[in-house]
Amino acid sequence: MSSSFEILKRCASGRIGKLTTPHGVVETPTVMPVINPNIRLVSPSKMKDMGAEILITNSYIIYRSKKLADHALTRGLHSLLEYDGPIMTDSGSFQLSVYGEVEVTNEQIIDFQHKIGSDIAVPLDIPTPPDVSRDRAEEELEITTERLKNARNHLSGSTLLAGPIQGSTYRDLRTEAAKKVSEIGFDIYPIGAVVPLMESYRYADLVDVIVSSKMGLNPSSPVHLFGAGHPMMFSLAVAMGCDLLDSAAYALYAKDERYITPHGTFHLSGLKYLPCSCPVCQSYTPDEIRNSDDPVTLLAEHNLYTTFEEIRRVKQAVYDGNLLELVEMRCRSHPRLLEALERIYSYSDWLEIYDPISKSTFFYCGPESAKRPEVIRFSKRMERLNIDGSAIIRPAGSNIKNTSDFDHMLEFKPPFGAYPVELGEVYPFNAESPSVHGPESLGVALENTIRLIKLNPDAEFTFMKPDHMEHPILEKLSSIANIVNFSQ
């Protein structure tokens, strides 16, 4: 069976899609809770009630246990986990990254995943960690590529096959690896060995890894981000085009008495009140959870409720066309995420290719909004505006009369700049933005206005400057336009 991935809705590089598997259709983006076959804090059936559409477990752990392996081989993986929906299985690469070796070959673990009825199998790739030497990254990438080729040739039947993308923190190697994996042909494309980046809060480097990998893939390929467990970075991952995320954080954090929110994590001992409205938080106080018979399970359940709530919020943002607004809000929850926001907007030219041309309303959320794809697109398409004769540029929203002597009327609104007044109610110029902008947004708008004026050298422009507007670029503007002050 070959997978079918249908994209239904887009925003930035994120999308809502439908992934067809042997055990049903999964709507993406979605989170796959990680199931330890030996320890289940939350039952798979309860996870399904919470919102889980697909699970992920470790086939190597099952393979190493005679009891688990016998059950899976005779009655199937779905019977073992007591779950009738799609299940993805990892190969033991995580154990390889931790312990340096595993007691199984690539062919053996692929064959085992197929025999136990995995919906999506993963070859035994080499998870090259960040910051290793380039020689090591290239050598391990070559081994991974050979293993992927062998797995593709070895596997047949209904099981879908994932082709992990490696390359450490070398962007060109990630892109090259993605191209090679695409040429081999897989059903899912996981981006591997990124957990160390997330554990050390290197979110900006994570952006480089994801975008570089995406640049080497077919845009319609479904992408899995390994280990993306914390809800506060879901929107960022989805905006870069990740469709499947997996999370063991709900359980790992619970064991350490940590309480997950979309904005960060809190230790239970430091909480007087529970800000969530999930069934656990409605039924218990922090003290009652700590003093209960099974606080770990209660915390794991809350963490899962929060996880699924956030992925639904992300999906709604994609549907509404305001995913980047959610990204900007979430990235302000941690300084290192704010670095990631700056980094993702360094790829705005790439994001603009996939971002829909028309949405509802552009919401300005801060200085980073001046670098969004919509602003880049306007700058690229400015050449389509042909202006001759006399033109006046007034502040957007101002009620200025006596402009009949001009052939054209334009509005000025940061972070875009000047545009014909007739476009004022058209996306993205219908933007909701503050009346007074900071230097970043104002600077972009003024540079765009200067470019528009230079593209129309036969026109004479008059720029109406509010009294409160000050910026060094105004001096540059004054050399090509007549600037007049006015007070609203």
UniProtKB/TrEMBL annotation:
<feature type="binding site">
    <location>
        <position position="193"/>
    </location>
    <ligand>
        <name>substrate</name>
    </ligand>
</feature>
<comment type="function">
    <text>Exchanges the guanine residue with 7-cyano-7-deazaguanine (preQ0) at position 15 in the dihydrouridine loop (D-loop) of archaeal tRNAs.</text>
</comment>
<keyword id="KW-0862">Zinc</keyword>
<dbReference type="InterPro" id="IPR002616">
    <property type="entry name" value="tRNA_ribo_trans-like"/>
</dbReference>
<dbReference type="GO" id="GO:0002099">
    <property type="term" value="P:tRNA wobble guanine modification"/>
</dbReference>
<comment type="similarity">
    <text>Belongs to the archaeosine tRNA-ribosyltransferase family.</text>
</comment>
<keyword id="KW-0479">Metal-binding</keyword>
<feature type="domain" description="tRNA-guanine(15) transglycosylase-like">
    <location>
        <begin position="13"/>
        <end position="335"/>
    </location>
</feature>
<dbReference type="GO" id="GO:0005737">
    <property type="term" value="C:cytoplasm"/>
</dbReference>
<dbReference type="InterPro" id="IPR036511">
    <property type="entry name" value="TGT-like_sf"/>
</dbReference>
<protein>
    <recommendedName>
        <fullName>tRNA-guanine(15) transglycosylase</fullName>
        <ecNumber>2.4.2.48</ecNumber>
    </recommendedName>
</protein>
<feature type="binding site">
    <location>
        <position position="281"/>
    </location>
    <ligand>
        <name>Zn(2+)</name>
    </ligand>
</feature>
<dbReference type="InterPro" id="IPR004804">
    <property type="entry name" value="TgtA"/>
</dbReference>
<keyword id="KW-0808">Transferase</keyword>
<dbReference type="GO" id="GO:0016763">
    <property type="term" value="F:pentosyltransferase activity"/>
</dbReference>
<feature type="binding site">
    <location>
        <position position="125"/>
    </location>
    <ligand>
        <name>substrate</name>
    </ligand>
</feature>
<feature type="binding site">
    <location>
        <position position="276"/>
    </location>
    <ligand>
        <name>Zn(2+)</name>
    </ligand>
</feature>
<dbReference type="Pfam" id="PF01702">
    <property type="entry name" value="TGT"/>
</dbReference>
<feature type="active site" description="Nucleophile">
    <location>
        <position position="90"/>
    </location>
</feature>
<keyword id="KW-0819">tRNA processing</keyword>
<keyword id="KW-0328">Glycosyltransferase</keyword>
<dbReference type="InterPro" id="IPR050076">
    <property type="entry name" value="ArchSynthase1/Queuine_TRR"/>
</dbReference>
<dbReference type="GO" id="GO:0008270">
    <property type="term" value="F:zinc ion binding"/>
</dbReference>
<comment type="pathway">
    <text>tRNA modification; archaeosine-tRNA biosynthesis.</text>
</comment>
<feature type="binding site">
    <location>
        <position position="278"/>
    </location>
    <ligand>
        <name>Zn(2+)</name>
    </ligand>
</feature>
